[in-house]
Amino acid sequence: MVISNMAEGLLRGVEGATDRLTAPFSDPVVRLGVTGLSEAGKTVFITSLVANLLDRGRMPGLRAAAASEIRSVWLQPQPDDTLPRFDYEAHRARLTGENPAWPEGTRRISQLRLSFRIEPAGFFSRLAGPQTVHLDIVDYPGEWLLDLGLMEKSFADWSAEVISRARRRPVAAPWLAELDAADPGAKLEEPDAQALAGAFTAYLHAARKEGYADLGPGRFLLPGDMEGSPVLTFAPLPPGQAPRGSLAHEFERRYESYKRNVVKPFFREHFARIDRQVVLIDVLGALHSGPQAFDDLRLAMADILSAFRPGRASWLTRAFGGRRVERILFAATKADHLHHTQHGALSEIAAAMLREAKDRADFAGATTAAMAIASLRTTVEDKVSHQGAELSVVKGRVAGDRQAAFHPGTLPSDPGHLLHPAREGAAAWADDGYAAASFLPARVTLKPGEGPPHIRLDSAAEFLFGDKL
């Protein structure tokens, strides 16, 4: 058995070394990670991006498309047979059918490979002949990234942080009542453990509905096939004695097991292999939820981005399997919920929210950018009279299949007018606040060669991987 294991390990090592040595001489591959917390629009982003790369009539900002250097694009079987395929065809049909609707959100990791046949412009480039470039798109829940911050935290430290935040939130009252009644030092009884973990999980779901973002562990919200397992049956506990066989001792053991058996494999097998990353942020949703939710999103995204290993990998490091995130795009989604005159302010707010993480990435050598996008444009712009003044609005399809005009409020040109009260714990915005809309996908008739309508999706693609095309 020992000899067999050693031989198997040696074989895997030789195969891995061979793959790494031949990688520099094979078709180039760009591995794009797409993430963001719930409601940020990951599934719609990937679906619209792929559709607009297959039919590039709406992609003038992608230079290789504008210069007609992309000869063809096609979907290929994904390289990893162990991962689910991103169901592009079903999502596209749902978004662009006769009665378009939003697809279900990301609940697990999935992958899709898009291949480009490139014929570069220029005499010397043409001598080299056409090239093939593969784009591997990896979709995964942003909530899972929150778990990466757990790796440096003990159970006691994590518990103290979570309980402290929860005591400032009314939505946590039911869970905190059960927590205060529990005896962490008492003998473990599995029904009690399940009840306490269930109350904690219910709090996380309720807090997410309230607009809060720092809601790990991520698998508690999106458990997949782990639902009901002991590795998801624990909760934060106040400090105290934890004798062997007690509730506190077992919860700490399960917390460490979660880090070892759930978080580490995800980082090692998927996240650490990303080349380019887009982080989708629902800034407008956070604004609507108020200053505390807005600041909570800022802190959660900073925690997520601290897990990246930004910087430019050397040729030798890349050849032998080491990767670093070279480009990171911070994309404020749902720009179609605003008149175009406010898109600049939305981009500035997103950049300011992520300033600390962006500065770290820039310092490490990564290229970063922030922009306001709409993966699928659902509205048209209009002007309406309101209290004797002309107001810029957007109009779109809402529930009941009717058209409605919407104005969310005027975003400040200085992001500090939002960041300062949020950091200071203000209960509400100084003005009337910011409204949120729930537009449905618009009915569209696509011409041959056209993908779905969008806002700046071509610019996002150019930044993320245009240099490879």
TrEMBL record:
UniProt xrefs under InterPro entries:
YcjX-like
Q: What is this protein called?
A: YcjX family protein
